[in-house]
Design goal:
single chain; 435 residues; mainly alpha; Clc chloride channel; 0% strand; globular
Amino acid sequence: MEPAERLPRRSRFTGSEVWHQRLLFWLSAIVVGSISVAYGWGTDEAIRLFHRFTDPHPYYVFLLCPIGLAAVALVTRTVFPGAQGSGIPQAMAAIHMERIEFANTMLSWRIAVGKVLLTIVAFACGASIGKEGPTVQIGCSVMNIVGGLGLKPSRELLRLLVLAGGAAGIASAFNTPIAGAVFAIEEMAHYHVDASIGRRLLVVTALSGMAMLALVGNYTYFGTVHASMPWGWNWLAVPSIGIVGGLLGGAFARILTIPIQRFPRLLSWLVRRHPIVFAAICGLGLAVIGWASGGQAFCSSHPEAQGALNGTLVLPIDFTLLKWAATIVSYLSGIPGGIFAPSLAAGAGLSAWFVPLFPHVSLSVLAMLGMAAYFSGVVQSPITAAVIVLEMTNNIEMTVAVSAASMLGTAFSRMICRKPIYAAMADQFLEAMKS
Protein backbone atom coordinates (compact mmCIF):
# COMPACT_ATOMS: atom_id res chain seq x y z
CA MET A 1 0.00 0.00 0.00
CA GLU A 2 1.61 3.23 -1.12
CA PRO A 3 1.83 6.05 1.43
CA ALA A 4 -0.89 8.64 1.00
CA GLU A 5 0.18 12.01 -0.32
CA ARG A 6 1.24 14.55 2.27
CA LEU A 7 -1.41 17.18 2.72
CA PRO A 8 -0.27 20.77 2.12
CA ARG A 9 0.28 22.89 5.17
CA ARG A 10 -2.38 25.40 4.14
CA SER A 11 -5.86 23.86 4.17
CA ARG A 12 -7.84 23.95 0.92
CA PHE A 13 -11.09 24.38 2.83
CA THR A 14 -12.75 27.78 3.27
CA GLY A 15 -13.11 29.35 6.72
CA SER A 16 -16.79 28.39 7.02
CA GLU A 17 -16.03 24.83 5.92
CA VAL A 18 -13.26 24.55 8.51
CA TRP A 19 -15.62 25.53 11.33
CA HIS A 20 -18.32 23.28 9.89
CA GLN A 21 -15.79 20.45 9.96
CA ARG A 22 -14.70 21.21 13.49
CA LEU A 23 -18.22 21.19 14.89
CA LEU A 24 -19.07 17.93 13.11
CA PHE A 25 -15.80 16.34 14.21
CA TRP A 26 -16.45 17.32 17.81
CA LEU A 27 -19.97 15.91 17.66
CA SER A 28 -18.72 12.72 16.00
CA ALA A 29 -16.04 12.25 18.64
CA ILE A 30 -18.64 12.47 21.41
CA VAL A 31 -20.85 9.97 19.58
CA VAL A 32 -17.91 7.56 19.16
CA GLY A 33 -17.08 7.77 22.86
CA SER A 34 -20.69 7.14 23.82
CA ILE A 35 -21.06 4.18 21.47
CA SER A 36 -17.79 2.75 22.79
CA VAL A 37 -19.13 2.77 26.34
CA ALA A 38 -22.26 0.86 25.32
CA TYR A 39 -20.20 -1.50 23.17
CA GLY A 40 -17.75 -2.15 25.99
CA TRP A 41 -20.60 -2.93 28.36
CA GLY A 42 -22.05 -5.35 25.81
CA THR A 43 -18.76 -7.20 25.33
CA ASP A 44 -18.21 -7.45 29.08
CA GLU A 45 -21.67 -8.93 29.57
CA ALA A 46 -21.09 -11.37 26.71
CA ILE A 47 -17.85 -12.59 28.30
CA ARG A 48 -19.58 -13.02 31.67
CA LEU A 49 -22.35 -14.98 29.96
CA PHE A 50 -19.82 -17.29 28.29
CA HIS A 51 -18.06 -18.06 31.57
CA ARG A 52 -21.32 -18.41 33.48
CA PHE A 53 -22.42 -21.03 30.95
CA THR A 54 -19.15 -22.93 30.45
CA ASP A 55 -17.31 -22.75 33.79
CA PRO A 56 -19.64 -25.25 35.47
CA HIS A 57 -19.65 -27.42 32.31
CA PRO A 58 -16.28 -27.05 30.52
CA TYR A 59 -17.14 -29.60 27.82
CA TYR A 60 -19.94 -27.37 26.53
CA VAL A 61 -17.30 -25.39 24.66
CA PHE A 62 -16.95 -28.25 22.17
CA LEU A 63 -20.48 -27.44 20.97
CA LEU A 64 -20.67 -23.73 21.64
CA CYS A 65 -17.45 -22.64 19.91
CA PRO A 66 -17.88 -24.50 16.57
CA ILE A 67 -21.59 -23.68 16.25
CA GLY A 68 -21.11 -20.10 17.44
CA LEU A 69 -18.19 -19.23 15.15
CA ALA A 70 -19.89 -20.87 12.16
CA ALA A 71 -23.09 -18.92 12.82
CA VAL A 72 -21.26 -15.61 13.22
CA ALA A 73 -19.24 -16.25 10.05
CA LEU A 74 -22.44 -17.08 8.14
CA VAL A 75 -24.25 -13.91 9.23
CA THR A 76 -21.13 -11.84 8.54
CA ARG A 77 -20.86 -13.09 4.95
CA THR A 78 -24.58 -12.94 4.12
CA VAL A 79 -25.90 -9.93 6.06
CA PHE A 80 -22.87 -7.80 6.95
CA PRO A 81 -20.20 -8.37 4.25
CA GLY A 82 -17.20 -6.19 4.96
CA ALA A 83 -17.57 -6.51 8.73
CA GLN A 84 -15.21 -9.47 9.04
CA GLY A 85 -11.81 -9.23 10.67
CA SER A 86 -10.35 -6.44 12.71
CA GLY A 87 -11.79 -3.42 10.91
CA ILE A 88 -8.52 -1.49 10.97
CA PRO A 89 -7.33 -2.82 7.56
CA GLN A 90 -10.71 -1.93 6.04
CA ALA A 91 -10.45 1.60 7.40
CA MET A 92 -6.90 1.95 6.07
CA ALA A 93 -7.95 0.55 2.69
CA ALA A 94 -10.82 3.03 2.48
CA ILE A 95 -8.30 5.89 2.34
CA HIS A 96 -6.75 4.39 -0.80
CA MET A 97 -9.89 3.35 -2.67
CA GLU A 98 -10.15 5.08 -6.03
CA ARG A 99 -13.90 5.69 -5.75
CA ILE A 100 -15.24 7.36 -2.63
CA GLU A 101 -18.56 5.51 -2.88
CA PHE A 102 -16.72 2.21 -2.40
CA ALA A 103 -15.08 3.59 0.73
CA ASN A 104 -18.49 4.70 1.99
CA THR A 105 -19.79 1.14 1.80
CA MET A 106 -17.01 0.05 4.18
CA LEU A 107 -17.67 2.90 6.60
CA SER A 108 -21.43 2.84 6.97
CA TRP A 109 -24.07 2.42 9.66
CA ARG A 110 -24.68 -1.12 8.38
CA ILE A 111 -21.07 -2.06 9.00
CA ALA A 112 -21.02 -0.33 12.39
CA VAL A 113 -24.17 -2.10 13.58
CA GLY A 114 -22.97 -5.45 12.26
CA LYS A 115 -19.59 -5.04 13.92
CA VAL A 116 -21.17 -4.36 17.31
CA LEU A 117 -23.72 -7.16 17.22
CA LEU A 118 -21.50 -9.85 15.74
CA THR A 119 -18.50 -9.28 17.98
CA ILE A 120 -20.72 -9.37 21.07
CA VAL A 121 -22.08 -12.75 19.92
CA ALA A 122 -18.52 -13.93 19.16
CA PHE A 123 -17.41 -13.00 22.67
CA ALA A 124 -20.36 -14.95 24.05
CA CYS A 125 -19.03 -17.95 22.10
CA GLY A 126 -15.54 -17.64 23.59
CA ALA A 127 -13.70 -16.20 20.59
CA SER A 128 -10.20 -14.92 21.39
CA ILE A 129 -10.71 -11.43 19.97
CA GLY A 130 -10.62 -7.80 21.06
CA LYS A 131 -13.00 -4.88 20.73
CA GLU A 132 -10.46 -2.24 19.63
CA GLY A 133 -10.35 -3.06 15.88
CA PRO A 134 -14.15 -3.05 15.60
CA THR A 135 -14.24 0.19 17.62
CA VAL A 136 -11.86 1.74 15.07
CA GLN A 137 -14.11 0.76 12.16
CA ILE A 138 -17.14 1.96 14.11
CA GLY A 139 -15.36 5.25 14.86
CA CYS A 140 -14.41 5.69 11.21
CA SER A 141 -18.00 4.92 10.15
CA VAL A 142 -19.43 7.48 12.57
CA MET A 143 -16.88 10.08 11.46
CA ASN A 144 -17.56 9.36 7.80
CA ILE A 145 -21.32 9.67 8.21
CA VAL A 146 -21.68 12.47 10.76
CA GLY A 147 -18.41 14.29 10.08
CA GLY A 148 -19.13 14.60 6.38
CA LEU A 149 -22.65 16.01 6.66
CA GLY A 150 -23.08 19.02 4.42
CA LEU A 151 -19.49 18.91 3.16
CA LYS A 152 -18.39 18.20 -0.39
CA PRO A 153 -16.98 14.65 -0.61
CA SER A 154 -13.30 14.46 -1.45
CA ARG A 155 -10.38 12.12 -0.89
CA GLU A 156 -8.79 14.70 1.37
CA LEU A 157 -11.89 14.90 3.55
CA LEU A 158 -12.26 11.10 3.60
CA ARG A 159 -8.66 10.69 4.76
CA LEU A 160 -9.17 13.23 7.51
CA LEU A 161 -12.38 11.55 8.66
CA VAL A 162 -10.82 8.07 8.72
CA LEU A 163 -7.78 9.21 10.68
CA ALA A 164 -9.99 11.02 13.17
CA GLY A 165 -12.27 7.99 13.50
CA GLY A 166 -9.32 5.67 14.03
CA ALA A 167 -7.85 7.91 16.70
CA ALA A 168 -11.19 8.22 18.50
CA GLY A 169 -11.75 4.46 18.23
CA ILE A 170 -8.49 3.48 19.94
CA ALA A 171 -8.83 6.26 22.50
CA SER A 172 -12.35 5.23 23.50
CA ALA A 173 -11.71 1.48 23.37
CA PHE A 174 -9.06 1.62 26.10
CA ASN A 175 -9.33 5.15 27.55
CA THR A 176 -5.94 5.94 25.99
CA PRO A 177 -6.28 9.32 24.24
CA ILE A 178 -2.59 9.85 23.51
CA ALA A 179 -2.23 6.33 22.13
CA GLY A 180 -5.26 6.97 19.91
CA ALA A 181 -3.65 9.98 18.26
CA VAL A 182 -0.28 8.23 18.00
CA PHE A 183 -1.89 5.16 16.41
CA ALA A 184 -3.60 7.24 13.73
CA ILE A 185 -0.35 9.04 12.90
CA GLU A 186 2.06 6.10 13.13
CA GLU A 187 0.01 3.16 11.86
CA MET A 188 -2.84 4.53 9.75
CA ALA A 189 -1.13 7.56 8.19
CA HIS A 190 2.47 6.29 8.38
CA TYR A 191 3.52 9.72 9.70
CA HIS A 192 2.19 11.53 6.61
CA VAL A 193 0.25 14.22 8.48
CA ASP A 194 0.86 17.87 9.09
CA ALA A 195 0.64 19.75 12.39
CA SER A 196 -2.95 20.90 11.87
CA ILE A 197 -4.22 17.33 11.44
CA GLY A 198 -2.21 16.24 14.47
CA ARG A 199 -3.95 18.89 16.55
CA ARG A 200 -7.36 17.80 15.31
CA LEU A 201 -6.61 14.20 16.23
CA LEU A 202 -5.72 15.23 19.76
CA VAL A 203 -8.94 17.22 20.07
CA VAL A 204 -11.00 14.30 18.76
CA THR A 205 -9.43 11.81 21.18
CA ALA A 206 -9.90 14.22 24.06
CA LEU A 207 -13.59 14.70 23.28
CA SER A 208 -14.27 10.97 22.86
CA GLY A 209 -12.49 10.44 26.18
CA MET A 210 -14.59 13.15 27.84
CA ALA A 211 -17.75 11.41 26.66
CA MET A 212 -16.53 8.21 28.31
CA LEU A 213 -15.62 10.02 31.52
CA ALA A 214 -19.09 11.54 31.67
CA LEU A 215 -20.73 8.12 31.31
CA VAL A 216 -18.49 5.74 33.30
CA GLY A 217 -16.04 7.95 35.20
CA ASN A 218 -12.26 7.89 35.08
CA TYR A 219 -10.54 4.50 34.91
CA THR A 220 -7.35 2.85 33.73
CA TYR A 221 -7.79 -0.23 31.55
CA PHE A 222 -5.48 -2.45 33.62
CA GLY A 223 -5.50 -0.33 36.76
CA THR A 224 -2.44 1.45 38.14
CA VAL A 225 0.58 -0.84 37.93
CA HIS A 226 3.29 -0.04 40.47
CA ALA A 227 6.49 -1.14 38.76
CA SER A 228 9.92 0.35 38.21
CA MET A 229 13.23 -0.89 36.91
CA PRO A 230 16.38 0.65 38.43
CA TRP A 231 19.50 0.49 36.29
CA GLY A 232 21.62 -2.62 36.71
CA TRP A 233 22.17 -6.16 35.49
CA ASN A 234 18.44 -6.79 35.59
CA TRP A 235 18.16 -4.64 32.47
CA LEU A 236 19.25 -7.70 30.51
CA ALA A 237 15.58 -8.63 30.75
CA VAL A 238 14.75 -5.85 28.27
CA PRO A 239 16.62 -7.24 25.24
CA SER A 240 15.77 -10.81 26.21
CA ILE A 241 12.03 -10.17 26.31
CA GLY A 242 12.20 -7.72 23.40
CA ILE A 243 13.75 -10.34 21.10
CA VAL A 244 11.46 -13.21 22.12
CA GLY A 245 8.32 -11.07 22.06
CA GLY A 246 9.22 -9.59 18.68
CA LEU A 247 9.88 -12.98 17.07
CA LEU A 248 6.68 -14.49 18.46
CA GLY A 249 4.62 -11.44 17.47
CA GLY A 250 6.19 -11.46 14.01
CA ALA A 251 5.28 -15.12 13.57
CA PHE A 252 1.69 -14.30 14.55
CA ALA A 253 1.53 -11.45 12.02
CA ARG A 254 3.14 -13.57 9.32
CA ILE A 255 0.55 -16.33 9.67
CA LEU A 256 -2.39 -13.92 9.54
CA THR A 257 -1.08 -12.17 6.43
CA ILE A 258 -0.53 -15.30 4.32
CA PRO A 259 -2.90 -15.04 1.32
CA ILE A 260 -5.48 -17.78 0.96
CA GLN A 261 -3.84 -18.84 -2.30
CA ARG A 262 -0.72 -19.80 -0.38
CA PHE A 263 -2.54 -21.97 2.16
CA PRO A 264 -2.04 -25.74 1.83
CA ARG A 265 -4.20 -26.95 -1.08
CA LEU A 266 -6.88 -28.68 0.99
CA LEU A 267 -7.12 -25.78 3.42
CA SER A 268 -7.30 -23.23 0.60
CA TRP A 269 -10.07 -25.21 -1.09
CA LEU A 270 -12.01 -25.44 2.18
CA VAL A 271 -11.74 -21.69 2.86
CA ARG A 272 -12.88 -20.77 -0.64
CA ARG A 273 -15.60 -23.38 -1.18
CA HIS A 274 -16.88 -24.10 2.32
CA PRO A 275 -16.06 -21.06 4.52
CA ILE A 276 -18.72 -21.85 7.11
CA VAL A 277 -17.44 -25.40 7.56
CA PHE A 278 -13.97 -23.94 7.91
CA ALA A 279 -15.25 -21.52 10.57
CA ALA A 280 -16.74 -24.46 12.48
CA ILE A 281 -13.38 -26.27 12.31
CA CYS A 282 -11.68 -23.14 13.65
CA GLY A 283 -14.28 -23.10 16.43
CA LEU A 284 -13.46 -26.68 17.29
CA GLY A 285 -9.77 -25.77 17.38
CA LEU A 286 -10.59 -22.85 19.66
CA ALA A 287 -12.52 -25.18 21.98
CA VAL A 288 -9.57 -27.60 22.21
CA ILE A 289 -7.08 -24.79 22.86
CA GLY A 290 -9.32 -23.06 25.39
CA TRP A 291 -10.05 -26.31 27.22
CA ALA A 292 -6.32 -27.12 27.34
CA SER A 293 -5.69 -23.70 28.90
CA GLY A 294 -8.26 -24.28 31.63
CA GLY A 295 -10.46 -21.60 30.08
CA GLN A 296 -7.82 -18.86 30.24
CA ALA A 297 -7.33 -18.54 26.47
CA PHE A 298 -10.98 -17.78 25.72
CA CYS A 299 -12.25 -14.24 25.02
CA SER A 300 -9.90 -11.29 25.67
CA SER A 301 -8.13 -12.82 28.73
CA HIS A 302 -8.26 -9.45 30.47
CA PRO A 303 -8.25 -10.90 34.04
CA GLU A 304 -5.18 -12.99 33.25
CA ALA A 305 -3.25 -10.04 31.85
CA GLN A 306 -4.31 -7.81 34.75
CA GLY A 307 -3.23 -10.42 37.29
CA ALA A 308 0.22 -10.67 35.73
CA LEU A 309 0.57 -6.89 35.60
CA ASN A 310 -0.44 -6.54 39.23
CA GLY A 311 2.08 -9.21 40.22
CA THR A 312 -0.60 -11.46 41.72
CA LEU A 313 -0.75 -14.16 39.03
CA VAL A 314 2.06 -16.17 37.49
CA LEU A 315 0.39 -17.52 34.38
CA PRO A 316 1.04 -21.09 33.22
CA ILE A 317 4.12 -21.45 31.07
CA ASP A 318 1.99 -22.49 28.08
CA PHE A 319 -0.52 -19.62 28.36
CA THR A 320 1.18 -17.37 25.79
CA LEU A 321 1.40 -20.08 23.14
CA LEU A 322 -2.19 -21.20 23.74
CA LYS A 323 -3.44 -17.62 23.58
CA TRP A 324 -1.35 -17.12 20.43
CA ALA A 325 -3.00 -20.13 18.80
CA ALA A 326 -6.51 -19.29 20.05
CA THR A 327 -6.31 -15.82 18.51
CA ILE A 328 -5.06 -17.20 15.18
CA VAL A 329 -7.92 -19.69 14.78
CA SER A 330 -10.46 -17.07 15.91
CA TYR A 331 -9.25 -14.57 13.33
CA LEU A 332 -8.91 -17.08 10.48
CA SER A 333 -12.52 -18.19 11.00
CA GLY A 334 -13.70 -15.01 9.28
CA ILE A 335 -15.60 -13.51 12.20
CA PRO A 336 -15.30 -9.83 13.20
CA GLY A 337 -12.88 -9.06 16.01
CA GLY A 338 -9.68 -7.24 16.88
CA ILE A 339 -6.25 -8.51 17.89
CA PHE A 340 -5.08 -5.77 20.30
CA ALA A 341 -6.48 -7.17 23.55
CA PRO A 342 -5.53 -10.83 22.92
CA SER A 343 -2.04 -9.72 21.87
CA LEU A 344 -1.60 -7.70 25.05
CA ALA A 345 -2.68 -10.70 27.11
CA ALA A 346 -0.34 -13.06 25.25
CA GLY A 347 2.50 -10.60 25.81
CA ALA A 348 1.78 -10.34 29.52
CA GLY A 349 1.96 -14.14 29.68
CA LEU A 350 5.60 -14.00 28.57
CA SER A 351 6.41 -12.89 32.12
CA ALA A 352 6.14 -16.53 33.23
CA TRP A 353 8.91 -17.49 30.80
CA PHE A 354 11.39 -15.06 32.33
CA VAL A 355 10.66 -15.36 36.05
CA PRO A 356 13.28 -18.15 36.48
CA LEU A 357 15.88 -16.17 34.48
CA PHE A 358 15.35 -12.87 36.30
CA PRO A 359 14.17 -13.76 39.82
CA HIS A 360 14.99 -10.29 41.14
CA VAL A 361 12.81 -8.52 38.59
CA SER A 362 9.21 -8.07 39.67
CA LEU A 363 6.46 -9.94 37.83
CA SER A 364 4.80 -6.61 37.01
CA VAL A 365 7.92 -5.36 35.23
CA LEU A 366 8.27 -8.58 33.23
CA ALA A 367 4.58 -8.44 32.25
CA MET A 368 4.84 -4.84 31.04
CA LEU A 369 7.95 -5.61 29.00
CA GLY A 370 6.40 -8.75 27.52
CA MET A 371 3.21 -6.91 26.65
CA ALA A 372 5.10 -4.10 24.86
CA ALA A 373 7.51 -6.43 23.04
CA TYR A 374 4.91 -8.89 21.79
CA PHE A 375 2.35 -6.25 20.83
CA SER A 376 4.93 -4.21 18.94
CA GLY A 377 6.01 -7.43 17.24
CA VAL A 378 2.44 -7.97 16.05
CA VAL A 379 1.65 -4.46 14.80
CA GLN A 380 5.21 -3.16 14.18
CA SER A 381 4.26 0.26 15.55
CA PRO A 382 6.70 0.71 18.44
CA ILE A 383 5.60 4.16 19.54
CA THR A 384 1.95 3.12 19.67
CA ALA A 385 2.87 -0.07 21.55
CA ALA A 386 4.90 1.79 24.16
CA VAL A 387 2.36 4.57 24.67
CA ILE A 388 -0.64 2.25 24.89
CA VAL A 389 1.04 0.00 27.50
CA LEU A 390 2.11 3.01 29.58
CA GLU A 391 -1.34 4.60 29.41
CA MET A 392 -3.16 1.34 30.16
CA THR A 393 -1.06 0.82 33.29
CA ASN A 394 -0.88 4.46 34.40
CA ASN A 395 2.88 4.04 34.77
CA ILE A 396 5.50 6.48 33.45
CA GLU A 397 8.39 5.10 35.49
CA MET A 398 8.75 2.29 32.98
CA THR A 399 8.87 4.59 29.94
CA VAL A 400 12.47 3.93 28.93
CA ALA A 401 12.34 0.16 29.47
CA VAL A 402 8.97 -0.27 27.76
CA SER A 403 10.07 1.89 24.81
CA ALA A 404 13.25 -0.14 24.40
CA ALA A 405 11.32 -3.42 24.49
CA SER A 406 8.89 -2.05 21.88
CA MET A 407 11.69 -0.98 19.53
CA LEU A 408 13.39 -4.37 19.82
CA GLY A 409 10.08 -6.16 19.32
CA THR A 410 9.45 -4.32 16.07
CA ALA A 411 13.00 -4.81 14.80
CA PHE A 412 12.99 -8.58 15.34
CA SER A 413 9.43 -8.95 14.11
CA ARG A 414 10.49 -7.55 10.74
CA MET A 415 12.91 -10.44 10.32
CA ILE A 416 9.88 -12.72 10.05
CA CYS A 417 7.12 -10.45 8.72
CA ARG A 418 8.54 -7.73 6.49
CA LYS A 419 5.35 -5.72 6.14
CA PRO A 420 3.24 -4.47 9.06
CA ILE A 421 0.17 -6.61 9.57
CA TYR A 422 -2.47 -3.94 9.01
CA ALA A 423 -0.79 -2.57 5.87
CA ALA A 424 -0.49 -6.10 4.45
CA MET A 425 -4.14 -6.86 5.24
CA ALA A 426 -5.26 -3.55 3.73
CA ASP A 427 -3.38 -4.39 0.52
CA GLN A 428 -5.07 -7.79 0.39
CA PHE A 429 -8.43 -6.17 0.94
CA LEU A 430 -7.84 -3.72 -1.93
CA GLU A 431 -6.79 -6.57 -4.21
CA ALA A 432 -9.95 -8.49 -3.32
CA MET A 433 -12.06 -5.44 -4.11
CA LYS A 434 -10.52 -5.25 -7.62
CA SER A 435 -11.15 -8.92 -8.42
